[in-house]
Amino acid sequence: MLLQLQTIKFLYGCAVNAFMLKPKWLTDSISEGHILPPEKYMAVKKCVGKLCVSVESLVKSNSHSPIFDNLGIMLHGEKNFCTDMAKIIKHGGGQVFKTLLELVQNRDDEKIVTGVIVTENERSASRHLKHCASEGKIPITSAYWIIRSLHLGKLLPLKEKTKSCKLPTLKLPNFPDTLGLSQEI
């Protein structure tokens, strides 16, 4: 089931805020002779906070802003990954940039509120890309962040990674006259 929830079609449906129903809903509706309420057949429940929203209330109040609204993303990975994710992000209201320079310029010009670099595999980002991103204060995250955000129906906060390499400190004993000792040796 997890792989089905990560297909491009499914993620696209999440991005456009479509109701994804299990196939059983259609067969049960046909056998009943009328359209059954879709709540118990939903593949992913639409939740706001801890409260799950019913289908009728979502249809009546269609004031949903896109999930990636005011978000600029630079994708880093293989061509197929970038193409598929770009479609999902654009239909979810986000902007996709091909270069880091474009992302930074649009953020600085306030055309987007937040800029993020999304990688196919977080470990595949080069040291140079990580350095440039940290200079521009642009977070780097994996595609899993997009997938989780789409499944939950809201943009998840970006976790700041503090990869500070703390070297063990070596405390040297204080000698009264270290300079004198070195001259004798």
TrEMBL record:
One of its GO terms (biological process) is DNA damage checkpoint signaling. Residues 1-43, 63-163 form the BRCT domain. It holds the Pfam family BRCT_3. InterPro entries: BRCT_dom, BRCT_dom_sf, BRCT_p53bp1-like_rpt2, TP53BP1-like. Coiled coil: none annotated. GO terms for cellular component: nucleus. GO terms for molecular function: histone binding. This is Uncharacterized protein LOC104222771. It comes from Nicotiana sylvestris. The lineage of its organism: Eukaryota, Viridiplantae, Streptophyta, Embryophyta, Tracheophyta.
